[in-house]
Predict the structure.
Amino acid sequence: MGKSNPQSGLFFLGNPRREPYVGGEKLYFVAEKEKLEVINWWQAATSPTIAAMLADTQSKLRQAIFRAGTYYEASHERASPVERLITLAIALESLFSPPDKGEFTFRIALSAAQFIGETPDERHQIFKGIKEMYGLRSALFHGSYDLDKYNNGRFVTTAEVEKWASWIRRGLSGFLALYLTGETNRDTILNNIAAAAFDPALAEKLRSSCSLPKALQERSSKR
C-alpha cells in the first residue's frame, strides 16, 4: 500500500477475500445488526477532517499506525496460520516496540497488556500470550521449531492467530483514537504506558482515553 492510497490502514475496506479462510469453515459476513455500525465507520472515515488526518503520514504515531494497519490487514490475506503469525508480529512491533530495543519481548508484551487489558486477569493473559507468540516467532525465524507440529498444522493454530489478531486490533484502535484526539508521538504513548504500570489511576485514564467511537464522534463533529 503506497502513498497513492491515503485510506489504507484500519479504515480501508479492501478487496473481497478471494480464497477460502480455514478451508471455507470460517466466512466473513456482516450481520444485519452490524450494518449501521459499518455505515457509521465509513462515514467517519470519509469525513474531510479524518480523511485529511489519515492522509498525513508525517508524525511518528501516524507512521506506526500505517505500518501496523498494513500488516494487520495483510494477516487476513494469508492462508496459513504461520504466515499470519509473521504479519501480526510485525504489526505488533510497529505499535509497541521500545525505542532502545532493550528486553524486547518482555517490554512489548508488558506495554500491550497494560494498554489494552481491561482487568488484571486479562492483562496477565495478554502478557503471557504475547510472550508465547514471540516464542513461536523466534522458533520460526531461527529454524528451531518442532518439525512434526509444523507439518501437522499444530505449530500455530487458527485459534491462536485469531486471539493475537484481536489484541492487535484493539491496540490499533487505541493508538488511532489517541492520534485522532491530538497525539502525534508514539514514544510519548509508550512512556505513558510505562508510567501507568506504577500508577493505577494513570493507567485507567490512559485506557479510558482510547475509545475509538468517542474519538471518531469528536473528530467528525469538527468538519
Observations:
- The chain has one domain: 32-220.
- The CA atoms of residues 113 and 122 lie 8 Å apart.
